[in-house]
Amino acid sequence: MNAAKRVLSPSKVENLPAQGKRYKKQIDLDTQTPPQPQEQENYDFLLDDDEDFDVSALDAAVSANPRLELSGWQRCVVRHVERLPKTHDLLLELSGEEEEAGKAVCHLQAPWNQTPIQTGDLLSLQAHWQPTLAAYAINKEHGYCVIHPDLLISSTSVTGSLFCRRKAVLQDRFRGVDSANAVMIIGTLVHELLQTVLAQRLRRKPQIEDALQGMLHSAQLAQQLYAAQLSRAEIELQLHKFVEPIVAFIAQYLEGESPAVQLPETFAGRIEQIQDIEENLWVPQMGLKGKVDVSVRVRNKKHPIPLELKTGRASFSMEHKGQLLLYQLMHSALGQETRSGLLLYLREGIMREVREGRNEQRDLILLRNELAHYLTRDAQLPATGQESVSLSLPEQPGKLLQPFELPEPISHHSACGNCAYATLCCSFASTDPQLELSESHPLRRLMPQVLSHLGQPDNEYVLHWCGLLALEEQQARQSHQLRSLWTETPARRQQQGRAIHQLELPTGHKARFQDGRFEHKLVLSAQADKDFNLNLSGFELGEYVTVSCTSRLAIAAGYITRLETRSLCVQLERDLGQRYTDESFIVDKHESQSFASFNYTNLALLLEASEKSAELRSIVVARTPPKQHKVVPRIIGSKGGPMLRPLNKVQQLAALRALTTSTHLLIKGLPGTGKTQTLVAIVRLLHLMERSVLITAQTHSAVDNLLLRLLPHNLPMLRLGNSARIHPQLLAISEAELTSNCETVDQLTQVLHKPSIVGVTCLGAGHALFQQRHFDYCIVDEATQVLQPTVLRALSHCTRFILVGDPEQLPPLVRSREARQRGADETLFQRLDCEEATAVLTLQYRMNRSITRLANELTYGQALQCASKQVENARLQLELISNSNSAWVQRALQTHLEQAVLLLDTSDCSQRCLDYAAASKQLGQTGDSIEQHYGEDRIVPTTARSRRPPKYTNYCEAAIVMHLLHQLLAAGYDARRIGVIAPYRAQVELLRQLGKDLNGVEFNTVDQYQGRDKNLIIYSCTKTGSSTDSAERSREAEILEDQRRLTVAITRAKHKLILLGDVSCLQRYTPFQRLFKHIPDRCRLHLADGRMGFSWQTLLDELNHAKRGD
DNA sequence: GCTCTGCTAAGAGGA
Ligand SMILES: Nc1ncnc2c1ncn2[C@@H]1O[C@H](COP(=O)(O)OP(=O)(O)O)[C@@H](O)[C@H]1O
């Protein structure tokens, strides 16, 4: 009863179910409070009534018709929208995110009534009760309505859009098209200097000069200068000019000395305390984020106020003031009511107070909504279904269907002419059927200039990919990774493996400052679950995370540098000790949006007027095939022998073509044909020719795989990228290691520019090094797993490129089903594949002749050939102890070459799996929890689920696998030569748990096995039974319908491949059906009770024993 | 939504 009473105590009123999901903090508004809803009074009555009330009656009362409270920030869902005829107000009927949380009606009056809102939209509102309407209202004077509140837009994007909305929208997507100039770098450094001075409480000029010197000679600055291609000398003088103004600022505002002249309008108060520096704000109430330069306490203000530093001309423009107004709103929404801010123009030594202003703040939020609208619009795509999907519009020649709507361009001759986004802006403008520019619009003059080098196919290629990327972005937004930070409790996030909560700083903790970052140790608190182990929390070393405390989201971000059972270390960009010593912290995984913008930016790169971009367009867009020089460089003839010798004829030919191609070469490496071997030779030969080589791939492991094979050859190599992701044996050539002693730009340049062979992931090719270094060759390994836009960056830094891969194996990961269906998984390899461009490696060193034959029949025609008799005839080396095994096991593990492929048919075992799960409680639970974790039905209650057959696990197959494995190991077969694969993660986890004592056997998904092999492979196909619902079947089928996955699965085994599954079920999937046609009866074994000593009961009993054994 | 890789950020200033 006590508990119930506490929940209802007035101070915890937000815990009332009637309030719905509210923001944690509320602000006190001067606005008139609405009358308490009727039900609320009932509670009071109940409360007064005392200890003995009935909680369920209370719940019933609440769900009757509670009113949703909108006078504080409230998330709500639009249930109905209507435009009122006379007033043109938008009338919204709202409910909480869960409908039972309550309802409310709100009028959006001018200027909010133009907001694009639809039924079903999620809004974040703060409204004003209007008795005359008997409803809430948001109007000119009161309230805010925020659309798409889970999209946090940065304050500078909002203020930036004051000048040109179109640019702001482009900038948000194509981040990084405009590179920072010297003035901006100086600006950044002056910020750092002032922040250092304030953090360290430096007061006197000599101290400040020392701080500047320290900064100028830091390794961190060298990195920044290297990236900006500036020398220390170039910036030193500029920075010095700011020392005097900083001294004056400190004297007046921190020391309280009167200035020589006090200009009118300047801030006359005093800063009493520096509260925070670079405070990070994420405010989902307003859909905004931002970083406050400095938060300061001043006299007569209850809460700290933001201070914004500018190093340019003192314009007092709305762009600058707007930043402060937004920070004020954000602080207020977080419960620190803030009505003022300080705008400091350091160069001119002027600081003014910027006070709150309803009109400006309202308009900024309206502007923010406008940006949110453009950034979340569903991509517009051509109808699919016809032969060729084209963006061209028959009625409007020259125009193309635009994937996303953009704001209209401003009309400003000089600004448009100098805008970094001009090409992009014009490319969209020139093809946009909706856009009508006036005769005198500056873009009309600009367009022919900035677009003269582009043809319509170029525009079309870029727009096509923009559309596909937009679909991926949409998908990412919907998967609500980010929003869970404010919509789910920390405990729930921890459960899902996304977060670790109940962390604290150890007493007396001091952050260690290193390389411009603060290393913190966080320890699980005494309240945390005693059995919780951080090593099993789903977090990894090197992972990028945010740190929140219970009252504030994302106060810092950084990398995990250490993980122990009960503690972890994170390198953050700020020191938590300053302000948050006694807080309880939550660490969350952070998936940034940077992939999307990396890809968009690469498309923009393709449109540039540079020679390199023209070359890329001619290859990538126009698909111009390469020319082959006939003459091999002399040095290869004289010294290339040792490098070519380890290659077979086909590999040698590919290598020589790589050296002599005019622009590019594709190497199609069928399974086991020695791709890496060939690449090693190519890199060594190129090195012999004194050519520089950039080695790249989508994944770290693929990059490292090649570098590791090159390591013994003592070539000059550098590996760029996050050290935590790099193979330990390559750390010696990692960027971090090689540059660890560099303190100057020259030293950095020395180290980074010397090695002629550089390895980096495709996304890592955004590294600053590539602004300065161009490479002769780019080698893209596993090129059939990289999205087209992703690979462009690396290619743009090299003269020639070689793509290596196998389009018959698994494609790149595309999350959006629609993007996939529209061809987002078509890689550059496929696009450029043609006879002139492609060398095929056909001699394989992996599979014996039976397995090779099957692979040819399913996928490779007759292309795949065994490289030698030895490969062709390699058999499983196994001697079973004959009498201790039943006949079916003997048969299944036959070593005869003609039995190298075996299909074990379980028939429909769905009911058996179900019965087994029900009977064996313990195992049933294991499977249940695995299905729950990896399967799709995350929200189905356990009781309902266990009555249905599991979809992604199969006990019967697991039992057979375990039995076979035990027999193999008992016969002395080397566990490390055995691989067990399955299409689903859930089945893999089940197998792993059951086989955890079988050391050495590798269990993994087919996807993860790409590129690997084993002597013996068992493929547990998992799917069984007959699914009646055809719609469901087609939706689920994608994994099994993909022939590329099946191709990978059957080409992993060297000596023996055991396919295990329900043949009649699998036959419904086209690739399996085709495969089975080529498996003769003598290679099939039907498993049924009593046949060849087979017994389900025995096998399933064994599972129980195995389980009990631990 | 089964398979599941990548990576710092918001703001540096100026029409
Ligand atoms: N030319 C060759 N001669 C002999 N063996 C080879 C040759 N090329 C490749 N192999 C064998 O094939 C195996 C796989 O080669 P690798 O280059 O790692 O293949 P991939 O990169 O295609 O997976 C190697 O272990 C090697 O023994």
From TrEMBL:
<dbReference type="GO" id="GO:0003677">
    <property type="term" value="F:DNA binding"/>
</dbReference>
<keyword id="KW-0547">Nucleotide-binding</keyword>
<dbReference type="InterPro" id="IPR047187">
    <property type="entry name" value="SF1_C_Upf1"/>
</dbReference>
<dbReference type="GO" id="GO:0016887">
    <property type="term" value="F:ATP hydrolysis activity"/>
</dbReference>
<keyword id="KW-0347">Helicase</keyword>
<dbReference type="InterPro" id="IPR014808">
    <property type="entry name" value="DNA_replication_fac_Dna2_N"/>
</dbReference>
<feature type="domain" description="DNA2/NAM7 helicase-like C-terminal">
    <location>
        <begin position="825"/>
        <end position="1063"/>
    </location>
</feature>
<dbReference type="GO" id="GO:0071932">
    <property type="term" value="P:replication fork reversal"/>
</dbReference>
<dbReference type="InterPro" id="IPR027417">
    <property type="entry name" value="P-loop_NTPase"/>
</dbReference>
<dbReference type="GO" id="GO:0046872">
    <property type="term" value="F:metal ion binding"/>
</dbReference>
<keyword id="KW-0540">Nuclease</keyword>
<dbReference type="InterPro" id="IPR045055">
    <property type="entry name" value="DNA2/NAM7-like"/>
</dbReference>
<feature type="domain" description="DNA replication factor Dna2 N-terminal">
    <location>
        <begin position="98"/>
        <end position="298"/>
    </location>
</feature>
<dbReference type="InterPro" id="IPR041679">
    <property type="entry name" value="DNA2/NAM7-like_C"/>
</dbReference>
<dbReference type="GO" id="GO:0005737">
    <property type="term" value="C:cytoplasm"/>
</dbReference>
<dbReference type="Pfam" id="PF08696">
    <property type="entry name" value="Dna2"/>
</dbReference>
<keyword id="KW-0158">Chromosome</keyword>
<feature type="domain" description="DNA2/NAM7 helicase helicase">
    <location>
        <begin position="647"/>
        <end position="742"/>
    </location>
</feature>
<comment type="similarity">
    <text>Belongs to the DNA2/NAM7 helicase family.</text>
</comment>
<keyword id="KW-0067">ATP-binding</keyword>
<keyword id="KW-0238">DNA-binding</keyword>
<dbReference type="GO" id="GO:0017108">
    <property type="term" value="F:5'-flap endonuclease activity"/>
</dbReference>
<keyword id="KW-0378">Hydrolase</keyword>
<protein>
    <recommendedName>
        <fullName>DNA replication ATP-dependent helicase/nuclease</fullName>
        <ecNumber>3.1.-.-</ecNumber>
        <ecNumber>3.6.4.12</ecNumber>
    </recommendedName>
</protein>
<dbReference type="GO" id="GO:0005694">
    <property type="term" value="C:chromosome"/>
</dbReference>
<dbReference type="GO" id="GO:0033567">
    <property type="term" value="P:DNA replication, Okazaki fragment processing"/>
</dbReference>
<feature type="domain" description="DNA2/NAM7 helicase helicase">
    <location>
        <begin position="749"/>
        <end position="816"/>
    </location>
</feature>
<dbReference type="GO" id="GO:0051539">
    <property type="term" value="F:4 iron, 4 sulfur cluster binding"/>
</dbReference>
<dbReference type="Pfam" id="PF13087">
    <property type="entry name" value="AAA_12"/>
</dbReference>
<keyword id="KW-0511">Multifunctional enzyme</keyword>
<keyword id="KW-0235">DNA replication</keyword>
<keyword id="KW-0539">Nucleus</keyword>
<dbReference type="GO" id="GO:0005524">
    <property type="term" value="F:ATP binding"/>
</dbReference>
<dbReference type="InterPro" id="IPR041677">
    <property type="entry name" value="DNA2/NAM7_AAA_11"/>
</dbReference>
<dbReference type="InterPro" id="IPR011604">
    <property type="entry name" value="PDDEXK-like_dom_sf"/>
</dbReference>
<comment type="function">
    <text>Key enzyme involved in DNA replication and DNA repair. Involved in Okazaki fragments processing by cleaving long flaps that escape FEN1: flaps that are longer than 27 nucleotides are coated by replication protein A complex (RPA), leading to recruit DNA2 which cleaves the flap until it is too short to bind RPA and becomes a substrate for FEN1. Also involved in 5'-end resection of DNA during double-strand break (DSB) repair by mediating the cleavage of 5'-ssDNA.</text>
</comment>
<dbReference type="GO" id="GO:0005634">
    <property type="term" value="C:nucleus"/>
</dbReference>
<keyword id="KW-0479">Metal-binding</keyword>
<keyword id="KW-0408">Iron</keyword>
<keyword id="KW-0234">DNA repair</keyword>
<dbReference type="GO" id="GO:0006281">
    <property type="term" value="P:DNA repair"/>
</dbReference>
<dbReference type="InterPro" id="IPR026851">
    <property type="entry name" value="Dna2/JHS1_DEXXQ-box"/>
</dbReference>
